[in-house]
């Protein structure tokens, strides 16, 4: 193999000549330190290389060799509950070898090659198999049954398959194709920059339940859907992403910390093992894969981390699981793209971002979907993609927000004033939207309560009416409003404070089941409904405004899931108190 030579080093960009044997997108080893890089541009024999490790001290004349392989990830048992860096190096292992800071050129395989996993065949000798067919399973963690699938390019009749303990590189099955034998191992390698194939794309129609009321009730995302959370610094992007990673009812969660503070990933590493997944009763880490390329790590690997993450996610989707990936923040990914583009001296587009920003962002989100996977059992898998966006100053007219909003179907707009008032999650109910509303309504009405979507609309109408009434209040004061309008304002306030506000750090409030959301929604609406009835019957507004039961309404969110039946009692009491007011003739003081 011919060895190329470095001619220029510019930060994470290295240019090498004598690279005619290499191809664009090849992974290369740069200098005697064997830094990992990827060719992102080829001109004749000159390769421009994006280097995923620190390039300080590297200079012209040093060797560059291609591996002849595209940037790929290793897929097999051992992924779950591990934290990797942007190019899938296991961070824990690296730390053991190289200490606290990332030593360069440390070669640690992504998957442990020594551990033995217990493989249980599902297919048997004589079966005809092809790409995506399930050969057997490994109980990877208490909750993840890892399915071993026939890799790309292999089809034929199973000659041998055996139950037993194997490393990911040992042969678990031999597939005979005509006269040729294929040895199949548990580990596969997939290139990261290309979306994984599937048999058929389906319409994502089932909501991904997140336990976050403002999301599930008002702006749901579906399993296989796409969502973005743009918001200024401190508005709650990371907390929302953490909440989704904790509580979303996905079978596998891939969390990508991209260019944000390192301590946030440490937090995840410390918190998740202690949190019990309500669905499985086991620790959250048992279903989580972490990818960390935090702000202190090399910028180019930030660019790769999104692809590494989404490819791991696709792999689990292919097993027939519902998978969700969160990326915090895609703006840092775009900035890495911009930095490489400027070092390549490409023509800058809007705000210095390359012209291909929008198509790259689209290519990432388009890997979401609900699909029929490859394989003859026609299993269904879903991959939901949720990206945080950090527009400078919170102004979403900037290119990354705009490129993202053109693609995603759900927009959770974080609002700085709300965050400032400590209304969390600061998701604006007036700005946000979901294009999955119709599908989600159908599902909620069929699976939660036939009235759910009607109640959701009532609540949203009150919020919207409140917003225009507030305009009037600002101009002429609250006393000028009719009692009916004052009731609307109070009912909307209750929806905001008693329903939409949800404390991520409160033991009970952090997660609300759909059953709890449904009851709470009815409860806050019951105040409005009964209030209207009272006003019609001549009850003084003052009494309705100061009903003592409102205190209980405001505390219902803290009820443990097992006690949510008490919400029915609260609604009864609202009604009974109003009956009493009415029978008192509305003339007594509250
Ligand atoms: P960003 O990632 O947008 O910069 P963070 O997610 O770090 O913002 O949130 C900033 C702070 O806001 C958090 O440290 C927390 O105090 C508060 N916060 C955000 N969301 C919530 C929530 N749902 N419940 C309680 N506090 C929250
Ligand atoms: Mg953040």
Question: Number of folding domains?
Answer: 4
What sort of overall outline do the alpha carbons produce when their principal axes are compared? globular
Radius of gyration: 28 Å
Main beta sheet strand tally, sense and closure:
10 strands, mixed
| Uncertain parts | none
CATH H-level homologous superfamily name of the largest domain: P-loop containing nucleotide triphosphate hydrolases
Mean of residue pLDDT? 94
Give the name of the CATH architecture of the largest domain: 3-Layer(aba) Sandwich
Quickly name the level 1 CATH class of the largest domain.
Alpha Beta
Counting DSSP H or I runs of 4 or more residues, the number of helices is 16
**Count of β-strands:** 26
Strand content: 15-25%
* Helix percentage: 25-40%
Label the structural class: alpha+beta
Report the CATH topology name of the largest domain: Rossmann fold
Small molecules bound in the structure, each named once: adenosine-5'-diphosphate, magnesium ion
Q: What are the key terms here?
A:
33% helix, 16 helices, Elongation Factor Tu (Ef-tu), domain 3, six-stranded antiparallel β-barrel, 590 residues, Rossmann fold, OB fold (Dihydrolipoamide Acetyltransferase, E2P), single chain, binds adenosine-5'-diphosphate, binds magnesium ion, 4 domains, alpha+beta
């Amino acid at each position: 193999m011919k060895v190329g030579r470095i001619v220029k080093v510019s930060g994470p960009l290295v240019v090498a000549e004598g690279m005619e044997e290499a191809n664009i997108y090849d992974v290369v080893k740069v200098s005697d330190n064997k830094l990992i890089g990827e060719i992102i541009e080829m001109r004749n024999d000159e390769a421009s290389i994006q280097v995923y490790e620190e390039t300080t001290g590297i200079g012209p004349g040093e060797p560059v060799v291609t591996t002849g392989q595209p940037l790929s990830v290793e897929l097999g048992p051992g992924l779950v509950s591990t934290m990797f860096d942007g190019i899938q190096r296991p961070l824990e292992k690296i730390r053991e070898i190289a200490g606290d800071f990332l030593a360069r050129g440390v070669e640690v395989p992504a998957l442990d090659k020594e551990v033995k996993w217990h493989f249980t065949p599902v297919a048997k000798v004589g079966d005809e198999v092809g790409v995506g067919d399930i050969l057997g399973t490994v109980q990877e963690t208490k909750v993840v049954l890892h399915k071993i699938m026939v890799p790309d390019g292999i089809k034929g009749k199973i000659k041998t398959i055996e139950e037993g303990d194997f490393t990911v590189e040992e042969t678990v099955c031999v597939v005979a194709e005509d006269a040729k034998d294929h040895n199949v191992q548990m580990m596969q390698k997939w290139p990261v920059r290309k979306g994984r194939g599937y048999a058929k794309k389906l319409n994502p129609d089932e909501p991904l339940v997140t336990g976050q009321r403002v999301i599930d009730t008002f702006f749901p995302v579906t399993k296989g859907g796409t969502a973005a959370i743009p918001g200024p610094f401190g508005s709650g992007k990371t907390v929302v992403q953490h909440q989704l990673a904790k509580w979303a009812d996905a079978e596998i969660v891939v969390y990508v910390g991209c260019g944000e503070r390192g301590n946030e990933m440490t937090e995840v590493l410390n918190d998740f093992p202690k949190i019990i997944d309500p669905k499985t009763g086991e620790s959250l880490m048992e279903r989580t894969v972490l990818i960390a390329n935090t702000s202190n790590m090399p910028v180019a690997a930030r660019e790769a981390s999104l692809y590494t993450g989404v490819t791991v996610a696709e792999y689990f989707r292919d097993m027939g699981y519902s998978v969700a990936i969160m990326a915090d923040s895609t703006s840092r990914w775009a900035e890495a793209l911009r930095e490489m583009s400027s070092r390549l001296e490409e023509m800058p587009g809007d705000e210095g971002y390359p012209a291909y920003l929008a198509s790259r962002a689209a290519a990432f989100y388009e890997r979401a979907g609900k699909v029929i996977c490859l394989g003859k059992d026609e299993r269904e898998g879903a991959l939901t993609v949720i990206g945080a966006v950090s527009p400078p100053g919170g102004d979403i007219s900037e290119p990354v927000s705009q490129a993202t909003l053109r693609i995603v179907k759900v927009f959770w707009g974080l609002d700085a004033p709300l965050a400032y008032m400590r209304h969390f999650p600061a998701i604006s109910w007036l700005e946000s939207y979901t294009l999955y509303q119709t599908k989600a309504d159908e599902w909620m009405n069929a699976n939660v309560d036939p009235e759910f979507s009607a109640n959701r609309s009532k609540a949203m109408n009150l919020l919207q009416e409140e917003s225009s009434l507030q305009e009037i209040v600002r101009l002429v004061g609250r006393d000028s409003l009719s009692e009916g309008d004052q009731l609307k304002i109070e009912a909307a306030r209750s929806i905001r404070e008693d329903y939409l506000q949800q404390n991520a750090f409160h033991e009970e409030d952090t997660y609300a089941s759909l059953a709890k959301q449904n009851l709470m929604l009815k409860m806050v609406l019951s105040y409005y409904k009964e209030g209207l009835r009272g006003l019609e019957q001549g009850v003084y507004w003052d009494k309705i405004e100061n009903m003592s039961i409102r205190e209980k309404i405001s505390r219902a969110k803290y009820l443990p899931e097992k006690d949510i039946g008490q919400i029915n009692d609260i609604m009864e009491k609202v009604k009974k108190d109003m009956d009493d007011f009415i029978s008192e003739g509305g003339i007594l003081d509250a």
